[in-house]
Amino acid sequence: MEEQQNFQRHHVLKDAMISINSIVSIDCTVQNLSSAAACLDVAGPFGIPENFILVIRNDDVRQPRPVAWRNEKLIGVAFKSSGPDIGF
Fold first, then answer.
1. Tell me: the pLDDT tens digits for 37-75?
2. Distance CA 59, CA 61 (A)
3. What pLDDT does residue 12 have?
4. Residue-wise over 4-36: b if at least 16 C-beta within 10 A, else e?
5. Please, are residues 73 and 43 in contact by the beta-carbon 8 Å criterion?
């Protein structure tokens, strides 16, 4: 966890979607983003699995993401290699 603190976080408000399968998707907002992780604002974390596809709308990003942590309204996801190509 300490390793992630070395990456500069960028505050963003990006419209996104958690895609669980080809039928179920949940709207969310990317609140902050770094090359190692992202923080997603959700209505509630219930029903969101440990792995899902994160789709950042308008950035054409669609990548699988594992959940690193969660609380009542936020979910932290980790990037397995380099972060998404979002141009910040």
1. 999 999 987 889 999 999 998 888 888 889 999 998 999
2. 5
3. 93
4. eeeeebeebebebbbbeeeeeebebebbbbbbb
5. yes
Count CB neighbours of 41 within 10 A. Answer: 15
Tally of residues, the chain: 88
Residue closest to 64 by CA, chosen among 76, 51, 75, 50: 51
How far is the first Cα of the chain from the last one, in angstroms, to the nearest whole number?
Answer: 23
Task: Give the Å distances, CA to CA, from 12 to 7, 16, 23.
Answer: 15, 11, 27
Q: Tokens in use for 40?
A: 């997603």
